[in-house]
Amino acid sequence: MNLFVFLLNEAGEKELVTAPLDGVILPGVTRDSILHLTRSWNEFKVSERPMRMEEVTRAVNEGRMLEVFGAGTACVVTPVRNIRYDEVDYAIPLDPNDATSQAGPLTRRLDATIQGIQYGSVEYEDWSVVIN
User: Fold this and answer.
1) d(CA 33, CA 55)
2) 0.85 exceeded by the pTM?
3) Secondary structure (DSSP) of 19-67
4) pLDDT tens-place string over residues 76-105
5) What domains can be seen in the chain, in order of their start residue?
């Protein structure tokens, strides 16, 4: 499973961050699909870069954290609601517009898009090939 962090970075830009492929991170199809999709949407910055826990906790504490989710073959995307670091729990926002939501807007959109492509209800011509 890969971890993705969606936040307002210190420059005030929306940014989706995941760790780079450095020999430790799993180079999965779902990870690659998320990077490809979000870059094609051209709605926010998408980065493969190291992210330290200090940056994560600072974004939570400063109200800049938007969403965190895990991604992998079995789960597609799964929201993260809490991160425990140095004996402190950091609540991760899900959907600020819907307190009953079980996932944030980006997590839901990615899940629906990827599964839609897999099941053929979403066409994405430059990315998938239909086999009859």
Assistant:
1) 25
2) yes
3) ---SSSS---HHHHHHHHHHHHHTSSEEEE----HHHHHHHHHTT-EEE
4) 899 999 999 999 999 998 988 888 899 999
5) 2-119 (3.20.10.10)
